[in-house]
Design a protein that fits this description.
The protein has 111 residues and is mostly beta strands. Helix content is 8%, strand content 62%. The chain is built from one helix and seven strands. It has a six-stranded antiparallel barrel with strand order 1-2-4-7-6-5. It is globular.
């Protein structure tokens, strides 16, 4: 029981889960927009290893990796993204704790 209290106490950051929705633009064509799904408490840790740099559009782009521990939700998938401290993180992988009470979300922020 003490372990659970420690875990919950570490979840002191606010993170907004966003999911993509398809709407019709003013020109009549489909347009993808991001909508806030929920704001949840999370434990946030950054990758110990330094982030690699990827070449995107022929320029070097730094990638920051973070792990977010949140309570298990059914509306959060690899197609979702997270907003944390005014930064957007793309979800790359989701892993569940043994009791499936929490999910660990690996996400990347591109600078």
């Amino acid at each position: 029981m003490a372990k659970q209290i420690d875990t919950i106490g570490a979840m002191r950051e606010r993170v907004t889960i966003q999911n993509v929705t398809e709407a019709q633009s003013t020109s009549g064509f489909p347009a993808e927009t991001w909508a806030d799904t929920a704001t949840v408490w999370a434990e946030v840790t950054y990758s110990i290893l330094p982030s690699d740099e990827d070449a995107i559009a022929d320029k070097k782009t730094a990638i920051q990796v973070a792990l977010f521990r949140i309570r298990t939700r059914t509306d959060t998938t690899e197609k979702s993204r997270l907003s944390y401290r005014s930064e957007l993180f793309d979800i790359k992988a989701i892993e569940f704790t043994p009791g499936r009470e929490f999910m660990i979300v690996q996400a990347e922020r591109k600078k």
